[in-house]
Amino acid sequence: MEDSVWKTVMGLSLIRGIVPRTLFGLTAVAAIILIGILAFGGRRRRTHPLVASLVAAALAGTGGLLATWLMSDVFMVFGVSLGWPVILTVAGGFAGLGFVLAAAVTLRGARRALAVVLVPLVLASTALGVDLIYGEYRTIGNLVGYTPYPPLGSVTVRKASMSVGEWRDKARKGALPSMPDSGKVFAVDIPNTESKFKARKAMVYLPPAALSDRPPALPVMELLAGQPGSPGRLIDAGNIAATMNAYAAEHDGLAPIVLAPDQNGSATHNSLCADTTRGNAETYLTKDVVNWATTTLPAAKSARMWAMGGFSQGGTCTTQLVPRHPDIYGAMLPVDGELEPTDGSVETMVRRYFAGDRKAYDRQVPVNAIAATGTADHDWHAVQAVWNPGLDWFGARTGLGEMTKSLEEYPQVEVLQ
After folding, report:
1. In Å, how far are 15, 22, 24, 25, 68 from 29, measured between CA atoms?
2. What is the model's pLDDT at position 403?
3. Is residue 336 domain-shared with residue 208, that is, in the same domain?
4. How far apart are CA 104 and CA 307, in angstroms?
5. Do 171 and 227 belong together in one domain?
6. pTM, entire model
7. pLDDT, mean of residues 202-217
8. Same domain, 225 and 344
């Protein structure tokens, strides 16, 4: 019973439903009461209490706007621009804090207590407002690092016994093997046999066809989170399970297997997705993960059936690795990546990661990798905007089903000619 309650709490949504409604509602009601107190019940001084609080709000909001803009767009503290919706939301939070703190100075007793209570409410509402824009933490469990996914060992996964084409033929004849109604996400430790890279648990989504007693050889999407980030956060914030299950429901249980390995080892470490003095991340991603998948899961082995994708730093990794390994990956789906690996200046990276070997660093720059091989076949809402049509395109490419609409018909997608 307690475990069930815990899972229910951890599963509460932060982007819709009771949690945001309650938090925003409480903040709004308390703010309205405080404004009324200041307007009609505050202690009269040379400056009206409400006016004083409004002036404090204006000054704090302006200061917050300037500080956030400078950090975001001038000094680029976060590596990318936060975007004006986030900058304005944070500025609004500063304004709210200025208002309630000025009120707390003005008021006394229980009235001051109300202003003090509003401080954490304003902070929490601002943080939740930013989260609604980014879509980073979708549930309370995401916020505290809770992973609800069972181990892969809890189910029986069989090797492939037919092709995708044969599966579709059976579907047309109404002769499909038994399978669950929806796919599931599992947690797994992928052996680091060749790389010795110290990775966190990977997440694996298996569609209904992969969980059947006679699965087909399915295409694979190897997806990488940003940094900071984790495989679990990618699965949750990317809405992977729901997206794949919706696709599978329209394609006779077929959908790509999704691998979300850990390319960094921790939330604070940037591996550059390369083999460096700080770990062999490239070997782990392109050999250990791939070898494990093709020997353990009903995964196809052809490069045409494999794609790599990623968000932010994971997107940068994608554009580094796919051109360097065309024998493994036939497609890439990067979102909001950068033009080259980034962790400080180039000189710093060459010294820290490549023992002073500039050529080793240069080989990781995507444009150099593409030139060498001659091939190339920031928020989570952007991820879904890209990966939704990307899934349809990849599904058509790998034989899972037809792409029924053009790219121009997908929401938030602009096709550049």
Report:
1. 20, 10, 9, 6, 27
2. 86
3. yes
4. 56
5. yes
6. 0.78
7. 98
8. yes
Same domain, 109 and 85: yes
Q: Is residue 303 part of a domain?
A: yes
Burial 296-330 (b: 16+ CB within 10 A, else e): ebbbbeebebbbbbbbbbbbbbbbbbbbbbeebbb
Q: How many domains does the chain have?
A: 2
pLDDT classification of 339: cutoffs 50, 70, 90: low
Classify strands 331-335 and 220-224 as parallel, antiparallel or unpaired.
unpaired
The answer to the question of residue 408 being in a domain is no
- Closest to 229 (Cα-Cα) out of 203, 196, 210, 193: 203
Question: Phi and psi of 215, rounded to 5°?
Answer: -75, 155
59-105 pLDDT per residue, tens: 999 999 999 999 998 987 876 678 899 999 999 999 999 999 999 99
Do residues 314 and 229 touch, judged by C-beta distance below 8 A? yes
Between CA 175 and CA 169 the distance in angstroms is: 9
- CB-based contacts of 105: which residues, under 8 Å, 6+ apart? none
Q: How many angstroms separate the CA atoms of 281 and 273, rounded? A: 5
CA dihedral 120, 124, 127, 128 (to 10 degrees): -170
- Least-confidence region, from 125-129, 141-145, 298-302, 366-370: 366-370
What pLDDT, on the 0 to 100 scale, is given for residue 404? Answer: 79
Residue 272 covered by a domain: yes
- The tens digit of pLDDT for each residue in 145-188 reads 788 899 999 999 999 999 999 999 999 999 999 999 999 999 99
| Strand-pair partners of 310 | 224, 334
Do 286 and 373 share a domain, yes or no? yes
- What is the span of the domain harbouring residue 272? 152-403
Shared domain check, 246 and 164? yes
Q: Are residues 109 and 167 in the same domain?
A: no
**Judging by DSSP bridges, how do beta strands 257-260 and 279-280 pair with one another?**
unpaired
Q: Classify 76 as helix, strand or coil.
A: coil
How far does the chain reach from its first CA to its final CA, in angstroms? 57
pLDDT (mean) for 13-41: 94
- Cα 81 from Cα 92, distance rounded (Å): 18
Task: DSSP letter for 409, please.
Answer: G
